[in-house]
Specification:
By secondary structure, the protein is of the alpha+beta class. It has nine helices and eleven strands. Helix 2 runs antiparallel to helix 9, helix 4 packs across helix 5 and helix 4 runs parallel beside helix 8. The protein starts with a helix and ends with a helix.
Length: 377
């Protein structure tokens, strides 16, 4: 039911103009001379460039891909996987073998435990290499014909999974979560008021997702309003206005201090983001949301139970999630999501693909994340 609602919401937003219809070019106002981006909007959180891999941060971004239902790529048959070799051990802290289980000492798995490795599913903690769900998950990941990276970490440090962590991806709008976290911390320090008014001008106009671009130039928004729009509906104009006001220096300093160098931004996006770095940044967001910080309730409202939940679409009813998705067409294709699933055993996930969110891509991600949820409970 949740998935059906999400699809209907996507169609509604397209009709209402929150995203441009697929394959329709949109003319940017001629007085937006200072814009640092050029793009062809194709109906999702979309950017286009000339590279064959994600390299251009100057691309625009819109939310929610609507794939052609007639252009379905057949899912490859699942390959048989040998249970004895299906899952690799962690290269650090070699696990102890206890019967059919691969066990790392509990409590040693942290948000920054994940190293770069290839297309093998590594398990950490009290997960079993012979668990049919683990075997099925690796089979799905390895059968996927496009690039995919997956990292999942239970907050209590007892379970984790990682796959293809050496692969980088175009961030698309997933980058906005950490940027907004940094803004919230600046506001908490007293340097800026959340009620500060910013004026929407022609230079802020940006194609893609959101609603502000339909407003009249001269319309004013508070910083808090822009934060909520930036994350809840991935408003690109809100993001651009906040970028102009707050800059990138303190954000880049934050991610550097956390060891998330792949998430540094020079203009608007991160070209070669690593999913494993999103586990670190979302761990920071998790701790912040659990704190008494002034802006914590605003941030939680902005990113919790919002649409375009690509990594949590198959969750059962009543399970809350906080996240930021990102999608894109063209050479820097992206259909990705990162965030938190809130349960007694909360976990943080990052699932990234170099794809345009076709039915094939969506079904593959949904199937993988359904297994992830079952394994992390």
């Amino acid at each position: 039911m949740k998935k059906i609602i999400s699809i209907l919401l996507t169609v509604t937003m397209l009709i209402c103009g929150c995203s441009s219809p697929a394959n329709v070019n949109e003319t940017e106002p001629s007085n937006d001379a200072t814009s640092d981006t050029t793009e062809t909007t194709t109906g999702s959180e979309n950017t286009t460039d000339q590279a064959t891999t994600p390299t251009d941060e100057s691309n625009a971004s819109t939310e929610n891909s609507t794939a052609d239902p007639n252009n379905v790529v057949a899912t490859p048959d699942k390959l048989p996987v040998n249970a004895d070799t299906a899952v690799s051990q962690s290269p650090t802290n070699p696990p102890q073998v206890d019967g059919s289980h691969l066990i790392e000492p509990l409590g040693t798995i942290t948000a920054n435990s994940f190293e770069k490795h290839g297309k093998e599913l590594k398990i950490y903690g009290d997960l079993s290499a012979t668990d049919n769900r683990i075997i099925e998950l690796e089979s799905l990941l390895q059968s996927y014909s496009k690039k995919i990276g997956l990292v999942v970490w239970r907050k209590d440090g007892t379970r984790a999974l990682s796959y293809n962590t050496s692969q980088s991806f175009f961030s698309a709008c997933t980058i906005k979560a950490g940027f907004i976290l940094n803004i919230c911390k600046i506001i908490d320090s007293g340097a800026v008021s959340p009620d500060t008014l910013l004026t929407y001008e022609a230079r802020h106009w940006h194609k893609g997702s959101g609603s502000i671009r339909y407003s009249a130039y001269g319309t004013k928004y508070t910083v808090s309003e822009l934060i909520i729009k930036c994350l809840s509906i991935s408003d690109n104009v809100a993001y651009k206005m906040l970028l102009e006001h707050f800059g990138l220096s303190t954000y880049n300093e934050m991610v550097t201090s956390l060891g998330c160098n792949s998430l540094k931004v020079s203009k608007m996006w991160a070209s070669t983001a690593l999913p494993k770095d999103y586990i670190i940044i979302w761990n920071e967001i998790y701790d912040y949301l659990q704190s008494n910080a002034k802006m914590a309730p605003v941030l939680k409202e902005a990113c919790t139970n919002t649409p375009f939940n690509y990594g949590t679409e198959t969750l059962k009813e009543g399970v809350d999630y906080s996240h930021k998705s990102g999608d894109n067409f063209g050479a820097s294709a992206a259909y990705s999501d990162a965030g938190i699933v809130w349960e007694d055993n909360a976990y943080i996930y990052a699932v990234f693909t170099h794809s345009e969110g076709t039915p094939y891509d969506i079904n593959l991600v949904d199937s993988c994340m359904e297994l992830v949820y079952d394994l992390m409970k």
